[in-house]
Amino acid sequence: MFAEDNLAHSTNNSPQENAGHQAAHPESDAPGDGKTTQRGFVTTVGAVTGGMAVGVSAFSSAGVVHAEPAAAGLVRKIGVDLTVNGESRHLDLDPRVTLLDALREFLGLTGTKKGCDHGQCGACTVLVNGRRINSCLTLAVMHQGEAITTIEGLAKGDALHPLQAAFLEHDGLQCGYCTPGHICSAVALLAEAKAGDASIVTDLSAGAADGPADLTPDEIRERMSGNICRCGAYPGIIEAVRSVYRRA
Hints:
Blueprint: H1 2-12, H2 15-24, H3 38-54, E1 56-59, E2 65-67, E3 78-84, E4 87-93, H4 99-106, E5 125-128, E6 131-134, E7 147-149, H5 162-169, H6 179-194, H7 217-223, H8 234-247
Parallel strand pairs: 3-7
Antiparallel strand pairs: 1-2, 3-4, 5-6, 5-7
């Protein structure tokens, strides 16, 4: 009600009354007297807020915003030579491109999946010189001259990799989105176990570190813990890895 009364009062004033109000209160609109007025404050805040949205380079003493467009073409691309699935590939990349994006967006190898993009789910797992890594957490330029193996490089023609066949045999997948990362991770897991690499659950008192690790279900769970299956196909995944391990 109070606001309505004020609105009615202000809109019903005659031009003479409004002129008298401005004469009595010159500070409400008078510019350039060194004081911060309400209108000046609102104008300045609006200019600053708008300037932040477009990128502000400097402010003049009068509060005017000077904006500059983003500079284009200043990122120098770097030549990167990789061996991907046995084939030499050359890419000219922005140095900020991740290995995951280089594989998917520049080489068209979309079998490697982008899940969390934070190294938490393992869907982007690939092999670099035989070691498994999360390709979303590393830059492509960091792997100059290295050998990259993705899910597309595991099969030999029409012959599936033993782990690919085992995942199908033991239903180690459901939607399949995380499966490439699981299989690549399992390939490295078998190599690590064969080399005698211990995990946090390995019984070192039994001399397991002196030879191939025994891949019990607990060992496989621990060694595959960096790969998440949101469909919950873990029993099949563990049995698939175990079956290939037993035949090796």
